[in-house]
Amino acid sequence: MLEILKYPDPRLKQVSAPVQNFDKDLHVLLGQMQATLYAANGIGLAAPQVGVFQRAFIVDIDWINDDGPGKRPREYINPVLSDRSGRAVYEEGCLSVPGVNEEVKRAGRLKIRYQDRFGKSHEELVHDLLAVAIQHENDHLDGILFIDHS
Ligand code: QAP
Ligand code: CO
Predict the structure, then answer these.
(1) Under a CB-based contact definition with an 8 Å cutoff, are residues 22 and 118 in contact?
(2) Consecutive 10-residue runs of the chain (150 residues): their mean pLDDT?
(3) Which among 19, 22, 43, 84 is least surrounded, fewest beta carbons within 10 Å?
(4) What spacing in Å lies between the alpha carbon of 83 and ligand 1's midpoint?
């Protein structure tokens, strides 16, 4: 388990740097982030939340459902969001802001370009809860918390 930085830790406001090395160290970090996410009952975790100021996050919106597909962590490295459209309003929380839940209005659809853990580039169109979770986690890479939107 990695230690999760908690609000109002000023390090949560740092802007993270691009991932440069798609090496063993990155793969170990992503594995530790998965273990930390599941142990904390979360659906998303960004590297800066565990004190690593690099542009990477993981999202698993389904594992928490009893009738879902099980654990399938998605990994996004050096993400770039574009083509935002529509509206989604979810009651959000954050592992770095425990016990607080607030409605946030975000885009309901967007395009994400990103690299995987091997450095290969991908593009996906996402919507609804996955789009919201991606925007929430991407904000962490720029030092923004969901409570900053209210
Ligand atoms: C971000 O948040 C998110 O306060 C991920 O006591 C949340 O995993 C994106 C959590 C909602 C979209 C919608 C928070 C667990 C987990 C808490 C989380 C808590 C226990 C938050
Ligand atoms: Co968060």
Answers:
(1) yes
(2) 97 99 98 98 98 98 89 97 98 98 98 98 98 99 97
(3) 84
(4) 25
